[in-house]
Amino acid sequence: MSFSVNKFRSALAGGTHANLFTFTLGTVPSGVTLTNFTTMCKAGAIPALTLGIIEVPFRGRRVKIPGDRTFGEWTATFINSADQSLRANFEAWTAYIATNNFTTDAISSKTSTDYKSSITIEQLDDSGTAIKTYALQNAFPSDISAIDLSYDTVDAIEEFSVTFQYSHFT
């Protein structure tokens, strides 16, 4: 087989650009308003998928068979607006989920459907048309990163990351 740059370029067909994407959030708990989720979301990822392996001993060797699929956490990076409303609403969402709040020891009566949402990830082509779509099901935030503050930082806008847990993607 001979090497051909033209053959490689035609197989690549321009490739998919990592900066052409959109993230959309489904319904969130009442009292949480994440209207800037899509606009202020700077970065994320195509979700990861791991297929577990079960090793079965057989006559001195290990035979590998497929096990359960596991879906890793998903993290997105957001630009912090001047009013910090997006971060405040993520904090409100996690407070809604918590089995108790910071002021009382009352146990929550919420069910998981009350606080879970869906997140849609679309990879776009050059014209803005979705070419691949992933929907993270039963998603909820599990970690909101710190925002570092420093007198040395004079030319940067604040950013923070939110890590989501989800049951599976379609």
Cα radius of gyration in angstroms: 21 Å
Q: What is the highest CATH level, the class? A: Mainly Beta
Which architecture per CATH? Roll
Q: Main beta sheet: strand number and arrangement?
A: 7 strands, antiparallel
Could you tell me the mean pLDDT? Answer: 86
Number of domains: 1
Question: Regions with pLDDT < 50 over 5+ consecutive residues?
Answer: none
Shape descriptor: extended
CATH fold topology = Pnp Oxidase, Chain A
Measure the end-to-end span: 38 Å
Helices and strands, with pairings:
Blueprint: H1 5-12, E1 21-25, H2 37-40, E2 41-43, E3 49-58, E4 61-71, E5 74-79, H3 85-97, H4 112-115, E6 117-124, E7 130-144, E8 159-165, E9 168-169
Antiparallel strand pairs: 1-6, 2-5, 3-4, 5-8, 6-7, 7-8, 7-9
